[in-house]
Amino acid sequence: MDSAPMATPGEPSLGPGVWNQTGPEPTADSLLTLCFLKTAGVWVAPMYLWVLGPIYLLYIHRHGKGYLRMSTLFKTKMVLGFALIILYTSSVSVALWRIQQGRPQAPEFLIHPTVWLTTMTFAVFLIHVERKKGVQASGVLFGYWLLCCLLPAISAAQQASQEGFQSDPFRHLSTYLCLCLVAIQFVLSCLADRPPFFPKDPQLSNPCPEAGASFPSKAMFWWVSRLVWNGYKRPLGSKDLWSLGRENSSEELVSQLEKAWTRNRSTAQRHTEVTVFKRKGSLHHGGKAPETEAFLQQKGSRRGPLLRAIWQVSRSTFLLGTLSLVISSIFRFTVPKLLSLFLEFIGDSTAPAWKGYLIAVLMFLAACLQTLFEQQHMYRLKVLQMRLRTAITGLVYRKVLALSSGSKKTSAVGDVVNLVSVDVPRLTESVLNLNGLWLPLIWIIVCFVYLWQLLGPSALTAIAVFLSLLPLNFFITKKRNHHQEDQMRQKDSRARLTSCIFRNMKTVKCHGWEGAFLERVLCIRGQELGALRTSGLLFSVSLVSFQVSTFLVALVVFTVHTLVTEENAMDAEKAFVTLTVLNILNKAQAFLPFSIHSVVQARVSFDRLAAFLCLEEVDPEAVDSSPSRRSAREDCISVREGTFAWSQESAPCLRRINLTVPPGCLLAVVGPVGAGKSSLLSALLGELSKVEGSVNIKGPVAYVPQEAWVQNSSVVENVCFRQELDPLWLERVLEACALWPDVYSFPAGVHTQIGEQGMNLSGGQKQRLSLARAVYRKATVYLLDDPLAALDAHVSQHVFTQVIGPSGLLQGTTRILVTHALHVLPQADWIVVLEDGAIAEMGSYQELLNRKGALVALLDRARQPGDREEGERELTTSTEDPRGSFGSGRPMGGPERSMQLIPEKDSAASEAQARAPPDEPARAGPPAGKDGVQHGRVKASMYLAYIRAVGTPLCLYALFLFFCQQVASFCRGYWLSLWADDPTVDGRQTQAALRGWVFGLLGCLQAAGLLASMATVILGGIRASSLLFQRLLWDVARSPIGFFERTPVGNLLNRFSKETDIVDVDIPDKLRSLLIYTFGLLEVSLVVTVATPLAVVAILPLLLLYAGFQSLYVATSCQLRRLESARHSFVCSHVAETFQGGAVVRAFEAQGSFMAQNNAYVNESQRVTFPRLVADRWLAANLELLGNVLVFVAAMCAVLSKAHLSAGLVGFSVSAALQVTQTLQWAVRSWTDLESSIVSVERMQDYARTPKEAPWTLPSCAAQPPWPHGGQIEFRDLGLRHRPELPLAVRGVSFKIHAGEKVGIVGRTGAGKSSLAGGLLRLLEAAEGGVWIDGVPIAHVGLHTLRSRITIIPQDPILFPGSLRMNLDMLHEHTDDAIWEALETVQLRALVSSLPGQLQYECADQGNDLSLGQKQLLCLARALLRKTQILILDEAMAAVDPGTEVQMQAALGCWFAQCTVLLIAHRLRSVMGCARVLVMDKGQVAESGSPAQLLAQKGLFYRLAQESGLV
Fold first, then answer.
1. Cα dihedral 1186, 1187, 1192, 1198 sign
2. Predicted pLDDT of residue 1226
3. Among 216, 500, 690, 903, which is 20 to 30 Å from 735 by CA?
4. Closest by alpha carbon to 378, among 310, 443, 318?
């Protein structure tokens, strides 16, 4: 035997044995000589295993997953492995025996089989170790067996062709047997073993199939095929999604990043402190101040720790992905070299056919390997993105839980949601582009080396052309960024305005301001679309410059090469290899600025995240709440010399507070608006920054905030608040908090879901639910911030008696009650009066009365110290108790009915509606209009709707332009192939000049067509966006007020932000991409078919496969995107909810359970994200494989048809096929994105079919100015209902109000008072009868005409984004002097004068920078300016202290002395001065008369007066 079976040929490498004996001897310098192939076959596989094997051994040793049982697969592998070892041992033995026999052998005949013997032994050892470490499928051994099959097969084939079997049968038989055994090993390596017997990680319910997939399945992502097929057959549900592995779970990832962030931040802080300390000494030597140094280092110190933390947790995955990309780039540059060899083969008529087939195979393999490594790079970095998004979101959420009150003032809830939904994804997406900062530069260098080899010095002109295009692109990018920033500013401004409008639509409609606001929104929208149009057109120019740069460089290079140097002629190799290289160069040129832009954007987001994560946190040591050993008699709460501020930089808001509260004490805190009452509670909770002093609280704390905070969950979950359910205690708590009647009316009882921010509850219901949560906790200390403010008189009395008061549920606990309800003060054990952030006085009620100090002053300003109610009214509250009192009992079957889950939601809802009170439109229950996840494919009607919005002629024109530019592209390529095939005469082509001119002309035509077509798509998209937005805005604005009560604001804002943004940007972008890729795909198919008609046989099956992949992927991907969007919204909502209720969460010490819930939401979101990103890789890998098959088909057909094909045509065909590889997947990706995006058109048209309210203005109106001149109002048998399916809320109301009369309207909650005001303003249309004003029926008056002639001051003070002047004078009807006069009347002139900008002061969102009382006074000033003949006061002074209220009433009496006034009130004291009082009960007028007459009758009014303490 001369050699090892697979190791060496039978002859020396340069011997005469060649496959084609008639062909010439291969040249020694050729890359594809048989000698080279034989040598590679011997050494490549062993070198591969000895290089990667030790690294792989180390890896699996550290990442073991438990051992595998001995399966049939493992045993077969081991038997085959030992058989191979025996064969190689016999080969070595035979070689040694022949040497011993005196037959000389070349050294390699002994060395090669020895190398293979040791390598095979190592391979068998690896198989054994893999079983021990739980490896089910090995990529390293798969690659080894593949190399063992491919390269030695060449030697075996050559050996068989020599027909020397008789001379050495043992060598031939061993060679073939060895090759067969290796082939079987390769097939076995394509299979996966059984899972580990005792896995280290716990078994999951629905594990990801990746772990048990074979290596080819992992490489091509075939393991996701089952999910894709399920998504194609039916809608995907939660059971179809895989469970998250521990390595992808939020708990694991957040823990790793948090540890790294904390460690790096501590290190950075120590370093900064040391640096500042060292710098202090330099002050005396002219150095910078330490404050300046700290300021200069602040930004860097914020960014550094977070960057290092992210790098520490992600570096291994990132570096592995980068390595895959580098290897992919090597194969990317192998393809042009192989193409060069292939065209050289085509041009050489004497070259053997095997060489062509071999090059075609190598080209196919190189392209496939490029695909595999590139997709592995994408997969690893996409998974890294997902993990980083999870980890950073968790880090942000944990920061939200710890934010101080001062930090919250600098960060609105929208900013935090933006961090999670915009900045975190933008930062993580940049991970994919980090390699784009350096790799394209290497690509560019390699490309120029290639071009130099092909074209010589002419390649230098390519550099010149690229450099000349750079300034253009930099200029375009700069201008586009400017317009993009402008567009984002306008978009944010529009979003803030629309958000404020929809949240306060009742106020807008009451005043008839829809037109003014629509005009403002559309003005901003016009500026936004203008910036978007300019940005889009600039982007089109930039894209065209990138697309055309390949052509421009080729034109210049070819022209210089052929015309300047006489001996140079154009041939196929130069032309089409140059184009292939230039395409790579073009990708590099496009990739580099895109990556820079992405990283720059990410840096902005990163800085925002770092700044947020470095915000001031609540000091956990601010309050000493450690268990105390003191006796039970000692103080439960003590504050000594406490000075507190909202942040470390701000001025103190509480000064020198000294307060001790014994156990079981009820302490009342009173004082005027802005005195610091709520701040005192915040200080006790540790929410304020403690400047000096100490705070000590003994025992657990429960807190009720002034603005009730409820969660988007069920009633029982809100009350129990992460504690175990105790049904008996829950029943007592709900009864004491007067919640049983409400719960009884809810569709699902205590299991009824509460909408976001309690949107389906009234203000009073939310406040009582907030109180019930605190009571259920069974705490030692209760901090109650004005919980009675939003309650009616009798409800307030019930709650105080049953819960807070001396005999309530909380008796024996320590209670601090902040209140404006002065009537409860006699029942308090101790009273603290605050003024200007300091304690003015404190003591018992009698002591303070005797002192005649600050408390007496408060009572004097209220005029009636015995008054029982200072709270706000409830918007729409619960069902009235049948026995007239909340405490007297519950409706029969209440607890049983309420505590159970009711499956029949529809019947339950209808029952609840049937029982709904007259003034309650059955609001409780699941929020109506909830957005559902769409299923299935998008309807064709949506595409037609968008096309109609664009305009059919414009669409046809765009298609025509795309077709023309693609025809020009085809002609240009075909013309180049003709140029390459031109014969040369004396080393020159005679028609080179003509060819160059026509080539340039066709390229210019294509560029012009491409620019025109893209610009047409952009302009059409802008036109469609404008039209669809206007229709949406009009549809929503014209909807009645009931629509806004039933539809969550989040649904509306989603249409105006996310869906609008998709229609603005995504749809035109995806449509343009789809058209470019589709026409490009058609061109390639045409080129390959024209060049090699035989390829049609292969192209048709490929197109069918392509259509199959497309259908499978689009159906599944659209569903996964919808699911991901829906689940991500839960994450954002939970973050926003926690931000708003952070103080409550901390007070209840529920941070741990909230973190767990956040982890659960993020994990559910990632369960969808992971399959979607894998489905993307599945599509990309398989479609690129199809593209590679198309290249292979084109090359093989060219070899078969070589005799009658020109090199130019083959170059055109193969180079075009090479471009289709990524075109295939991007065409499908664009189609999928377009289908996902077009859903937004459907969602923007959702409200087109909802009912609309009456016309705003009528062409012929009976109410001509100065109507109403007197203000007489007459109700004639008026009946009102909230919705058609509900009973009448007001029925048979008939009474007349004379001009200038002041009438009070009172009644219990749900009596129909607010409905009456709604009927007067036509917020509710009359179901029966009508209303006449000055003899004119209001049904014959346009809505805006009517509402502009009536002034209403609602309970909720509303300010809109914009200047203070705009808020006071929305329609710009008054002078500055008139506005200042109104402000002086409401005692706000001094405040406004002190504001920056005075009347031009910009109000924050909802006016949050002003107190509730100040906002109410501004609304009063706004009403004074309108000064209409009719005024409706809807509990307008609930938020001001009693003394201020008296002055406000005097001002109103002066300004509206001659006007008709309707005063809707729950507090009877407010109506005692009215000429007449209407008492409403169950939607009807129960009593009417003067207050004195009604008291004398001793009817319903008398009973109400008794409850309020007036009699």
1. positive
2. 80
3. 903
4. 318
pLDDT of 167 reads 59
Return the structure tokens found at 128.
Answer: 């054994």
CA distance 1415 to 1413: 5
Among the listed ranges 325-329, 572-576, 817-821, which one has the minimum average pLDDT value?
572-576
CA 207 to CA 416: how far, in whole Å? 34
- Cα end-to-end span (Å), the chain: 123
Largest CA distance in the chain: 140
Tokens of 79: 């038997």
767-777 pLDDT tens trace: 889 999 999 98
Contacts of 253 (CB under 8 A, 6+ apart): 313, 387, 390, 391, 394
**Cα–Cα dist 267/950, whole Å:** 57
Is the pTM higher than 0.90? no
Whether 371 contacts 1185, CB under 8 Å: yes
Cα distance between residue 654 and residue 682, in whole Å: 11
Q: Smallest Cα–Cα separation from 532: which of 1026, 908, 893?
A: 1026
Token look-up 């291994």 returns 316
CA dist 792 and 787 (Å) reads 12
Half-sphere exposure of residue 369: CA atoms within 13 angstroms, side-chain side: 18
Q: Which residue, chain included where needed, has tokens 């300004």? A: 1455
pLDDT at 324: 93
Q: What is the pLDDT of residues 233-290, one digit of tens each?
A: 888 888 888 988 888 899 999 999 999 999 988 888 777 767 656 655 554 555 544 4
Using alpha carbons, select from 958, 951, 950, 947 the residue that is nearest to residue 1013: 958
Among residues 1192, 1189, 1328, 1338, which one has the least CA distance to residue 1261? 1338
Residues 6+ apart with CB under 8 A from 592: 436, 437, 440, 441
Which tens digit of pLDDT belongs to each residue from 788-811? 877 777 788 888 888 998 888 888
Backbone phi, psi, residue 1196, to 5°: -65, -40
- CB 1372: neighbour CB atoms within 10 A? 8
On the CB side of 574, CA atoms within 13 Å amount to 22
Pairing of strands 666-670, 830-835: parallel
CA distances for 509 relative to 514, 736, 1324, angstroms? 7, 37, 11
pLDDT at 327 > cutoff 90: yes
Q: What is the per-residue pLDDT for 626?
A: 65
CA 1178 – CA 220 distance, rounded (Å)? 7
Task: Convert the pLDDT of each residue in 1197-1211 to its tens digit.
Answer: 888 888 777 778 888
Strands 1290-1297 and 1273-1280: antiparallel
What are the tens digits of pLDDT across the range 482-540?
787 787 778 877 877 887 787 778 888 888 888 888 888 889 889 888 988 888 888 88
Q: Helix (H, G, I), strand (E, B), or coil: what is residue 1432?
A: strand
The amino acid present at 766, given as its one-letter code, is K
- Strand, helix or coil for residue 641: strand
pLDDT over 50 (residue 356): yes
Closest to 941 measured CA to CA, from 1308, 1285, 535, 1238: 1238
* Sign of the four-CA dihedral 1030, 1032, 1037, 1040: positive
Tokens of 1056: 């105006």
User: Residue 716: pLDDT above 60?
Assistant: yes
pLDDT tops 60 at residue 905: no
Taken as a whole, the chain contains a residue count of 1511
Question: 353-402 and 250-280 helices cross at what angle (nearest 10)?
Answer: 70
Residue 51, classified by CB atoms within 10 Å of its CB into exposed (0-12), middle (13-18) or buried (19+), is exposed
| Distance (Å, whole) CA 785 – CA 776 | 17
Please report which residue ranges of 982-1095 form alpha helices under DSSP H: 992-1037, 1041-1046, 1049-1054, 1060-1061, 1067-1091
* Inter-residue contact 1028 to 1247 (CB < 8 Å): no
Per-position DSSP letters for 1095-1117, written without gaps between them:
GHHHHHHHHHHHHHHHHHHHHHH
